[in-house]
């Protein structure tokens, strides 16, 4: 009888397909990659260079703090380093 009135069956019903799509929960975004546990991400390291707008200033500060690479910076020290770079940038 459904075919007589051109009503789609379950496998052909577009609403059935749509409801299956809506039932899938959205996948959470992956957190930013961190180089090592407890260190900042590459995006955060790039932010330090953007704040300073002078690569040498960032390298000098990181060397003074005992870091060989910008991605070695500890998360706990990241904000303090960014503030220090902002101060150096404002004083120029």
Structure description:
This protein is mainly alpha-helical. The protein has a domain at 38-92. 53% of the residues lie in helices and 0% in strands. It has four helices and no strands. The chain has helices spanning 14-23, 42-52, 55-65, 75-91.
Helix fraction bin: 40-55%
Which quaternary structure do these chains form? single chain
* First and last CA, distance: 82 Å
Helix/strand class: mainly alpha
Stretches where pLDDT falls below 50 for ≥5 residues?
A: none
Strand content: under 5%
Structural Rg: 26 Å
Q: Round the mean pLDDT to the nearest integer and report it.
A: 78
How would a textbook summarize the main sheet?
none
Number of strands: 0
Could you state the order of secondary-structure elements as H and E? HHHH
Number of helices: 4
Tell the overall outline: rod-shaped
Question: Layout of helices and strands, plus pairs?
Answer:
Elements: H1 14-23, H2 42-52, H3 55-65, H4 75-91
Helix pairs in contact: 2-4
């Amino acid at each position: 009888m459904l075919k007589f009135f051109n009503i789609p069956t379950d496998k052909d019903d577009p609403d059935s397909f749509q409801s299956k799509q809506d039932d899938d929960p959205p996948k959470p975004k992956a957190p930013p990659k961190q180089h090592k546990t407890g260190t900042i991400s590459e995006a955060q390291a790039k932010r330090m260079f953007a704040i300073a707008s002078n690569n040498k200033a960032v390298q000098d500060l990181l060397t003074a703090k005992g870091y060989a690479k910008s991605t070695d910076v500890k998360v706990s020290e990241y904000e303090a380093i960014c503030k220090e770079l902002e101060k150096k940038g404002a004083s120029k």
